[in-house]
Design a protein that fits this description.
The protein is mostly helical and about 170 residues long. The protein has one domain: Orthogonal Bundle (Arc Repressor Mutant, subunit A). Helix content is about 65%, strand content about 10%.
């Protein structure tokens, strides 16, 4: 909670809100577990693509990024991403190149082999999406609304953490 943004209607004092919010977070944790378990099953027979590689390829398809920026984007530890990037270099999925903005933090970009692997990644993402939405009555509008809500919660939590870190 930041000093400049008091909690609306004192929600931290509302037991029902606290219980519902904890239930919401519990469902997010379970959803993440289901997502990772399902993704593992989807790509289990692929000799090259693992879930960590899948996630990084999906991020790099937009543009080259540094390992720290990939880690921040995915909400992972830098060392975990570095380990996966090293595996990806060995498999010729990515390469490193000089970063004009930073001497020590190189850019990671996809190789031709990495770009070819995106076809499989796209198919895996479609299969994964199907597992979660086939037979589920929803709309694009509902998905966008939930996505925006979760994004705002994440951004707010990061701002609050940063604010509390600067006060210490």
């Amino acid at each position: 909670m930041t000093a400049s943004s008091p909690i609306k209607n004192n929600l931290l004092e509302n037991i029902e809100f606290l219980q519902d919010f904890q239930l919401f977070l519990g469902n997010i944790f379970r959803m993440n577990g289901a997502l990772l378990a399902t993704a593992e099953k989807v790509c289990k027979n692929d000799p090259v693509i693992t879930v960590p590689i899948w996630r990084i390829l999906a991020v790099l398809r937009r543009q080259p990024m540094t390992v720290p920026s990939i880690a921040r984007y995915l909400g992972l530890k830098r060392q975990s991403v570095q380990t996966t990037v090293n595996q990806m270099i060995e498999k010729d999925l990515v390469k490193t190149e000089d970063n004009p903005d930073h001497k020590k933090s190189y850019l990671v970009s996809m190789t031709q082999q990495g770009n070819k692997s995106l076809v499989r990644v796209n198919n895996y993402q479609k299969t994964l999406t199907g597992v979660f939405v086939d037979g589920f009555d929803t709309s694009i509008e509902e998905l966008v609304k939930v996505t925006n809500y979760i994004r705002k919660l994440r951004e707010n939590s990061l701002a609050n953490i940063e604010s509390s870190n600067t006060k210490q």
